Amino acid sequence: MLLNLVEDSPQPDRDVLLGGLLASGFDQESCLSRYQSVLYRKPSTKIPSSYLISKLRNYEKLHKKCEPYSESYNRTIKILGSKNISGPTECNYMVWTAQEGLGNRILSITSAFLYSLITNRVLLVEFYPDMMDLFCEPILNSTWLLPEDFPNEFRWSKNRPTFGNLMRSNVINATTEFPPSELFIYIASRLDFFDLLIYCEENHVLLLQKVPWLFLKSDEYFLPSFFLMSNFREDLDMMFPDKESVFHHLGRYLFHPSNKAWGLITRFYDSYLATAEELLAIQVRVFKPKSNPFDKLMDQILACTSQENLLPEIDKNKLIKSSNPSKNRTSKAILIASLYTKFSENITNMYWTFPTKKGELISVYQPSHEGSQHFGDNVHNMKAWVEMNLLSFSNVLVTSSGSTFGYVAQGFAGLRPWVLTRPENWNTSEPACRVGVSVEPCLHIPPSYDCKAEKNADMGEIVSYVKHCDDLPSGLKLVSN
């Protein structure tokens, strides 16, 4: 049952700091979601390790020391453009730049943050106007935003020589004695063999860790690859004894809705969802509208919810179920997140036309329906951010295969979702959905080359807790030990 927020006001025993995951000392009014989200989501069963908490507190100290315009930052920025670095610098940085939609961005930022955490870097993010005013600052009395006056010649551009380009031309390699002051790393679609060498352990140990400025452009949740590297493994094992909790903890540490976003989230929830005894959330991503008819996908959604008893069964033989509408009837809210209205309209009509066999009171809600994905649109990203959070308040979650939007929601919630089979791969003789094998998101473009053996290999067989994704078999994801 969901928390009733009319009756449940903040209490001293509420774990607003999430088991020590969050630092104390923030001004509550500046970021209400940091202290109020615990009232909306179900209590997490995943407890952050004391080692992860200590790593976060140490990172916060490092971030403050090396923050923009600090003495250390000002010294380090002066070496940008140097052809080689002869010795270590006091502060090293990872600069993240946006790529693709909001779900992809949140996942790649999380990956960049974990890399910073295990390599003692400071993460700075370059938010374009379409990401402004979505999130609160995650670090106390500091900023993670790349300064607006950061030198343009070191920002991302299409002609920037990337790590893969330099490896291809043998300008750099793991034996480079004096590395450059900066490297540009691209981890997204259309990667080739040399780009994928970023997943080689020796390149991190012998090259990347010597470079003070790493500039990253990525739409991938590439952090599962860190767990394949022996030099990171001990640190990661201590941080995350439960391998299925990585994004759950780091996502809730980093991403707190701004007061503007939180107002939209809570007003919708309080107006439509708060009084429901159960909340079922369905996230529908249509990757190929032309080849996947809406009717077939609707049939699949209904097959999933029927087979798994997620939605109440309707009684087509009756028009009225009960003369006493308030007696012994449970209320269920269905939240639909989709670019299209057809799915919510279909489910609404179904429960409007016929009563349920057990007399449940059913309500269906869809916060927005954009029709298509709008890249570079702040209003569109705000709506997406609102819906990701609303989905994460659910008791039961149904998601689309391969959708980063759904990955974010399940990660925040700490729920294993019911994952819809890819529509093009589904037929009515098979289950329409299966429960996910992990709360963790999937790395869609994984390493496939064993750098030590110098041959292709199945990277899903290296360690017991990095396996192929259930929703995208070519990908990799973290699972429980």
Give the helix tally.
13
Percent of sequence in beta strands: 5-15%
| Secondary-structure element string | HHHEHEHEHEHHHEHEHEHEHEEEEEE
Rg over alpha carbons: 24 Å
Classify the secondary structure makeup into a structural class.
Answer: alpha/beta
Helical percentage? 25-40%
Number of strands: 14
Low-confidence stretches: 1-12
- Global shape: globular
Determine the mean pLDDT: 90
Largest sheet: 6 strands, mixed
Cross-sheet strand order for the largest sheet: 7-6-5-8-9-10
For the termini, the CA-CA separation is 29 Å
Can you describe what's shown?
This protein has helices spanning 32-36, 50-66, 71-77, 102-119, 163-168, 201-206, 230-239, 246-254, 259-273, 294-307, 342-353, 378-391, 404-413; strands at residues 93-97, 122-126, 182-187, 213-218, 278-284, 331-338, 361-365, 396-400, 418-420, 433-435, 449-450, 455-456, 466-468, 476-478. Helix 4 packs across helix 8, helix 4 packs across helix 13 and helix 9 packs across helix 12 (378-391). The chain has 13 helices and 14 strands. A six-stranded mixed β-sheet has the order 7-6-5-8-9-10, sandwiched between helices. Strands 2-1-4-3 form a four-stranded parallel β-sheet. Helix content is 30%, strand content 13%. The two termini are 29 Å apart. A hairpin with a 4-residue loop joins strand 11 and strand 12. The protein is globular. By secondary structure, the protein is an alpha/beta fold.
Tags for this entry?
481 residues; alpha/beta; globular; single chain; four-stranded parallel β-sheet
